[in-house]
Amino acid sequence: MRKTAEALALAVLLITTAAGTRLVNLGMANPTPELYTRLTIENPKNMTYNVNTVILNFSVESLSFFRWRHFSYSLDGKELKRIANLTVDSEEFFPVSPGIYKENMTGNCVLPDLSEGLHNLTVYLIRDASTADGHYGETVPLANASFNIDTTQPSIAILSLENKTRTSPDIKIDFTVVEGSPSVKYSLDGKENVTISENTTLTGLADGDHNVTIYATDDAGNTASQIVYFTVAEPFPTVLVAVASVAVVVAVGAGLLLYHRKRRKEAQQK
C-alpha cells in the first residue's frame, strides 16, 4: 500500500513537472512582443514655406493592446487640437491574452492662419479607450517638426535708371534688394533672364526705347520685380552746331562790313 502511494505521488510530480516545462517552453516560444507606436511626420518638413496654410501629413505603425485611440497636435506649445482625418490602411489582430492589434494608419489636417516666423509642431497619441494596460487618457508625444513661414516679398530699388532719354549705349544698373539673400536676375526688353550677383552694366544698346526688369526671389520662393523704361538716342551733333555757329557769325560779320562800306561811300558822295 505504501509503495503504491509513493508511486502515485511520483507520477503526479512527473506529470506536473512535464506540464510546467511545456508551459514555460510555450511561453518562451511565443513571448508577448514589444509594444510600440511609431509616428512619422511627412509634412511639414524642416524648411521655409511662402504660404500661411500648411498641410500636416503623418503615418503611424503600431503594435498595441488597444485599437481605439486618437491623435492630436500642438502648435508652438498651445492647446491640443484633435486630428479628425485618420485612416487605417491595414489592421491585424493577434488573439493572445490580452489581444494585440497591429495597425498601419495615415492622418492629416490643415494648419491654417500661420503667422510669419518659426513654428514648432508636436503630434500626440491620446489613449482614450484602453483597459488592458491601465493607461486610459494618457497623452504621449510621438513626433516633432519645425518649419518657418515667410510670405514677405523682397523689396527692390533701382538706383541708377530713370524713365528718361540717354545718349550713351552703355547703361549701368545699380540696385538694392532688402530681405534676406535673394537670387537676382534681370531681363532686357523682355528677353531671357540673366542672373547677377551685383550691379552690372548693359553695353552696346541700340538706339530706341528699352526696358529693364529686375527680379528678386528669396529662399522661400517669394518673388518681386521692378521695371524701368528708358530711351537711347544719338547725341546731338555738337561739331555741326559749332560749324554752323561759325558760319552764322561770318555771315553776320560780312553783312555788317558791307553795310558800313555802303554807308561810308554814301557819305563821301555827299
Please provide a written account of the structure.
The chain has 270 residues and is of the alpha+beta class. The protein folds into 2 domains: 36-149, Immunoglobulins (Immunoglobulin-like, Sandwich); 155-232, Immunoglobulin-like, CATH 2.60.40. Helices cover 22% and strands 44% of the residues. It has 2 helices and 18 strands. The protein has helices at 2-29, 238-269; strands at residues 36-43, 48-49, 54-64, 70-75, 81-83, 85-94, 100-111, 117-126, 139-149, 155-158, 165-166, 171-173, 175-178, 183-188, 194-196, 200-202, 208-217, 223-232. The protein has a 5-stranded mixed β-sheet with strand order 2-9-8-4-5, with no helix packed on it. Strand 6 (85-94) and strand 7 form a beta hairpin. 10% of the residues are buried.
Within the largest sheet, what's the order of strands?
Answer: 2-9-8-4-5
CATH architecture of the largest domain, by name, is Sandwich
CATH superfamily of the largest domain: Immunoglobulins
Beta percentage is 35-45%
* Percent range of helical residues: 10-25%
Average pLDDT reading: 80
Give the number of DSSP strands: 18
Unreliable stretches (pLDDT < 50, length at least 5) are: 7-29
> What is the C-alpha radius of gyration, as a whole number of Å?
45 Å
Count of domain modules: 2
The end-to-end span amounts to 194 Å
